[in-house]
């Protein structure tokens, strides 16, 4: 969907929730689930989908979609008079981004005393990773040429 | 300064000490200054309580409450109590932040659950087998994101995610488990907490933070070496590191010296593992170290030297501290 890493805001992180509900409200979560099933929808179409499970006002859907667009969770394009919304990140990308933000905050770059992590969460050049992987393959090849 | 010089020498490969030695140097650099300060203060205070007759005979009653000398007589009790409060405050802050960190990790991890496929039974079996071998509790987080860490101070728990189990093959997972088991056996989190206290009570706090970071990097490398030694498969551990790094950071983040430093440490970890394949003399690293014996020895030396010093020269350090203060005031 989108190649950039999702920046998930951890402000208002809800401990009691699960999955995407940690950072999204209940209605926002429902809307994201709608967009992860259907690619592009207008406000009315989203409203119809939501009405299958709950009564909801048109203006509530309109303002929530607009807010989620401003937060960067949705993208929109104008088609005629209406906006067509779609999810900016796939569900996997969103959940991975959320986990990365949370763990990044927890690990506090090596100095958090309560845990020892196997891999820290700072960035690494893809090319460097490719080079390291090639070095490992080469070494494996030298060690056992039959493999 | 010594630790800083050592770091530079090793970073630019002028000197290549063993990882274990580097950890010791950094540990001493963090722990020694506050320990020495505590010793000097204790040695200067001790005669007042242990040999009050000698103390009063030397100073007279007027000096009863004073620690450092006549010139600081007015502020001495306040100064001494401030120092004491500072040390207690640092200890409380270290304990509080450690406890908060522990609770925060627990709360977030237990709820960091997403709808993902369950882990493969053979991988869970491998996980349970390694955990029972080392007396570790295991928590599997149903999350697509690859997570692995040892959490807690005395009774550590190994936390892994289903995403991690799916990312690694069996050999790589075995290497990772040995790495985490090494952390557990070395009681690394507990030592980090103790060193964090030393860091907080140090007057050069920003520098001790940096020292803690350098030490943590070396500890990771040492646990890699231990795992490589036990599994005899350093390339699998290197491969696990690269795979996990690739999945945890899909795009490079903004460059800064701090991040660049960490990136180079990751590179050196993987390179060290790759290079270790050619080494025929892989060192057997003691994990079941005599930490308790060392702690007892250290305490005995600390208390014993205080008592002996006070016995041989009851007011020696007291007068030395007074003279030193008078030099500066």
How would you sum up this structure, described in words?
- The complex is a heterodimer of chains A (147) and B (329).
- With 147 residues, chain A is α+β, with helices and mostly antiparallel strands.
- Chain A has one domain: Arc Repressor Mutant, subunit A (Orthogonal Bundle), CATH 1.10.10.
- Chain A has 5 helices and 4 strands.
- Chain A has helices at residues 26-37, 43-51, 58-71, 91-107, 126-143, and strands at residues 40-42, 74-79, 82-87, 115-117.
- Chain A has a 3-stranded antiparallel beta sheet.
- In chain A, α2 crosses α3.
- The longest helix of chain A has 18 residues, at 126-143.
- The two termini of chain A are 37 Å apart.
- With 329 residues, chain B is mainly alpha-helical.
- Chain B has one domain (2-247, 260-328).
- In chain B, 71% of the residues lie in helices and 4% in strands.
- Chain B is built from 13 helices and 3 strands, in the order αααααβββαααααααα.
- Chain B has helices at residues 2-11, 19-50, 52-59, 76-111, 121-134, 162-167, 170-186, 188-200, 205-231, 234-248, 257-275, 291-312, 316-328; strands spanning 137-141, 148-151, 157-161.
- Chain B has a 3-stranded mixed beta sheet, sandwiched between helices.
- In chain B, α4 packs antiparallel against α8 (188-200) and α5 packs parallel to α7.
- Classes of the chains: A alpha+beta (147), B mainly alpha (329).
- Chains A and B meet through α4, β4 and α5 of A and α4, β2, α7, α8 and α9 of B.
């Amino acid at each position: 969907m989108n190649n950039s890493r999702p920046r998930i805001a951890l402000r208002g992180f809800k401990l009691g929730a699960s999955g995407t509900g940690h950072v999204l409200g209940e209605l926002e979560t429902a809307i994201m689930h709608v967009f992860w099933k259907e690619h592009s929808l207008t406000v009315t179409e989203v409203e119809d989908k939501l009405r299958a499970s709950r009564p909801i006002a048109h203006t509530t859907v309109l303002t929530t979609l607009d807010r989620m667009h401003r937060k960067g969770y949705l993208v929109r394009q104008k088609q005629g008079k209406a906006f067509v919304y779609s999810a900016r990140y796939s569900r996997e990308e969103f959940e991975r981004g959320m986990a990365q933000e949370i763990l990044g905050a927890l690990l506090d770059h090596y100095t958090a005393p309560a845990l020892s992590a196997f891999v820290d969460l700072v960035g690494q050049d893809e090319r460097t990773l490719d080079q390291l992987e090639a070095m490992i393959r080469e070494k494996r090849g030298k060690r056992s040429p039959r493999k | 300064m010594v630790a800083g010089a050592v770091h530079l020498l090793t970073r630019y490969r002028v000197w290549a000490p063993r990882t274990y030695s580097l950890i010791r140097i950094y540990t001493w650099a963090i722990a020694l200054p506050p320990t020495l300060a505590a010793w000097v203060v204790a040695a200067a205070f001790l005669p007042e309580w242990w040999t009050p007759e000698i103390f009063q005979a030397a100073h007279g009653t007027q000096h009863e409450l004073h620690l450092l000398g006549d010139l600081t007589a007015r502020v001495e009790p306040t100064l001494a109590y401030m120092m004491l409060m500072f040390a207690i405050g640092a200890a409380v802050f270290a304990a509080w932040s450690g406890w908060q960190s522990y609770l925060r990790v627990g709360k977030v991890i237990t709820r960091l659950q997403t709808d993902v496929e369950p882990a493969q039974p053979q991988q869970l079996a491998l996980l349970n087998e390694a955990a029972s071998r080392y007396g570790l509790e295991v928590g599997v987080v149903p999350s697509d994101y690859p997570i692995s860490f040892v959490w807690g101070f005395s009774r550590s728990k190994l936390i892994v995610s289903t995403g991690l189990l799916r990312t690694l093959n069996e050999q790589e997972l075995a290497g990772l488990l040995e790495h985490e088991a090494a952390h557990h056996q070395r009681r690394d989190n507990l030592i980090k907490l103790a060193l964090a206290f030393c860091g907080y009570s140090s007057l050069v706090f920003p520098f001790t933070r940096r020292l803690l970071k350098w030490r943590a990097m070396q500890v990771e490398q040492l646990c890699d070496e231990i795992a490589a030694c036990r599994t005899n498969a350093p390339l699998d551990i290197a491969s696990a590191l690269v795979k996990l790094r690739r999945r945890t950071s899909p795009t490079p983040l903004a460059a800064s010296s701090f991040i660049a430093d960490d990136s180079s440490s990751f590179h050196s970890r993987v390179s060290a593992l790759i290079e270790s394949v050619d080494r025929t003399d892989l060192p057997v690293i003691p994990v079941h170290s005599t930490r308790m014996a060392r702690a007892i020895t250290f305490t005995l030396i600390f208390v014993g030297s205080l008592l002996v010093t006070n016995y041989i020269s009851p007011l020696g350090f007291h007068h030395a501290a007074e003279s030193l203060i008078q030099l500066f005031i």
